[in-house]
Amino acid sequence: MKNIQLIIDNKAVEVAEGTTILEAAQKVGIHIPALCHMKMDDINIENRPGGCRICSVEVKGKRNLSPACATKCLDGMEVKTNTIRVIHARRNILELIISDHPYECLTCAKSGQCELQTMAQDLGIREIHFEGEKSTYREDFSKAIIRDMDKCILCRRCITMCSDFQTVHALSAVERGFEAVVSPAFHMDLNESSCTFCGQCVAVCPTGALSEADYSKDVIQALANPEYTVIAQTAPAVRAALGESFGYPVGTSVTGQMVTALKNLGFDYVFDTDFAADMTIMEESAELLERLTRHLEGDKTVKLPILTSCCPAWVRFIEQNFPDMKEIPSTTRSPQQIFGAIAKSYFAEKIGVPREKLIVVSIMPCVAKKYECERDEFKVDGDPDVNFSITTRELARLIKISNIDFKQLEPSEFDQPLGESTGAGLIFGTTGGVIEAATRTAYELQTGKKLENIDFESLRGMDAIRSATVDFDGLPIKIGIAHGLGHARKLLEEIQEGRCHYHAIEIMSCPGGCIGGGGQPFHHNKTSILLERQKAIYSEDKQMKIRKSHENASVMKVYEEFLGHPLSEKAEHLLHTSYFDRSSQITIDDSEM
User: What is the pLDDT of residues 30-52, one digit of tens each?
Assistant: First the structure.
């Protein structure tokens, strides 16, 4: 590709043809503020509508200011990013945006991490010179995501994630002029729309227009009630990101300190969701091998490829968009729900606590987990297996409001018996991890041979769609991996059309898998943060004494004492689920029209 030269703030810059002024400025360390722009190179996500105009710059020879995010560089171009004209324009634009924004910073969920708030500070905005009518919309409260469109600045980042990346199309710009707003079609609630609650809209929203439903208050009330025994389960991706909220370098694993913090918060037991991930692998591997055996014996009714089922946003996606394929995913519940089922049966019996007096709190990187634990099939007589699911961000806030000095905490071990885990359970936190964990176990169960090299590098990485063939001692097993629902859609369409020849496919909704979950500390559109979290996951896996799920002694003990064996009648009842046709559940409330 041809290179061109230009000058930005008296600095010579050489860039490839097609590069924007914003990208060229970043190359030489010149900061140009932007609100609507978003770009994550490694996973091919970009939003550059050029709508907010905060990134306006002067280009020599042009009468009007140009948006740096949407203006391509030309050979010989001269650009000024910091003239009085530019600064004056940016301040006026920002004041106009704020003039139609609620003054609720003290109570806003995004306060302290709001890009609009930060930009106002950076540009020295102390008063608003524009007054007039403000846009007002009704709030939309779901169990997972809250929409407060009074705070929306129409940057359209959420639309890019929802429509372009996830291909869910739950959000779009509706109405015109002053009434314009981002919303599901016909102003329907998220619950009634095609939303999967993946939370990627929340992850990229620059303001408090989109936030996770916060269950911190419910958790505090449960902890304060002496009638309840309250236990915590923590997902693998949480420990790889929680430290970011306390000033640790990105990619620092803080497992031990996290456990100590949870005990200091008052949880009676602190367990590891990785334990349940190992149990998930026992069931899912048994399912895979059972289907493979029948397939090799010529059974034409076998549903292949088997699809992983750990991600609730992905499950809702297939139920809504591909209901004819709902028999293909593994019926094994997610680790969150397996943990809840075992905690409220096996563990509750062991400690002599009635299930309704046992409160299970999950700490997840995921917003969709809030939706998952509300599904009716995961309740017994109205009592949910998992009472509350909070995100990594919510846990960080709980630790801070409790005045716990996280950096000074000594590491602690998880409690037993539901705290023992393996490296296989840990790598659930990243794309490719679930299928690699399943492969480690399925190989040994199928062949009866010890797997010497358990690091399946061919299954790792950040490519959107990956494939590999794993040799099960002469039996080639073809594996597919996708992260992002848009990429999952491509694989599902291949299956429908008979062009897919995989035996097993792992699908995760979020970029990078759970490390990029909608409930993680905000990555501010930096893919490098996801890569560092991924490294932390694999690094901790390598340090684990046990790295195969079927070698987890505590898991094996639960089977011996309680479940019997994988796919037993009791295991099917407690650890498996079924899926539903939700394609007709998208409804329109015409009272709002």
Answer: 999 999 999 887 777 888 888 89
The number of residues making up the chain comes to 593
Counting DSSP H helices and E strands in the chain, the numbers are: 20, 22
For residue 466, what are the β-bridge partners?
481
Annotated catalytic residue 372: yes
Whole-number Å distance between alpha carbons of 412 and 420: 13
DSSP labels, 436-504: HHHHHHHHHHHH-S--S----GGG-S--SEEEEEEEETTEEEEEEEEESHHHHHHHHHHHHTT----SE
CB 373 within 8 A of CB 348: no
Tens of pLDDT along 399-413? 999 999 999 999 999
Residue burial 63-89, b: 16+ Cβ < 10 Å; e: rest: eebbbbbbbebeeebebbbeeeebeeb
pLDDT in tens, 172-204: 998 888 888 999 998 999 999 999 999 999 999
- Amino acid letter, residue 405: D
Choice among 283, 287, 319, 394 that is catalytic? 287
**At residue 35, what are phi and psi to the nearest 5 degrees?**
-110, -50
369 part of the active site: yes
Instruction: Give the mean model confidence (pLDDT) for residues 123-141.
Output: 90
Q: Which of 131, 148, 143 is nearest to 96 (CA)?
A: 131
Rounded CA separation 284/505 (Å): 12
- pLDDT on residue 588: 45
421 assigned to active site: no
To the query of whether residue 284 is one of the catalytic residues in this protein, the response is: yes
Q: Which helix (H) or strand (E) element contains residue 147?
A: strand 145-147
**Band of residue 585 on the pLDDT scale cut at 50, 70, 90:** low
Crossing angle for the helix pair 312-321 and 485-496, to the nearest 10 degrees: 40
- What is the value of pTM for the model shown? 0.93
284, 420, 436, 532: which is the annotated catalytic residue?
Answer: 284
Judged on CB neighbours under 10 Å (0-12, 13-18, 19+), 185 is: middle
Evaluate whether 571 touches 563 at the Cβ level (below 8 Å): yes
Kindly name the residue from 55, 195, 310, 510 that is annotated as catalytic: 310
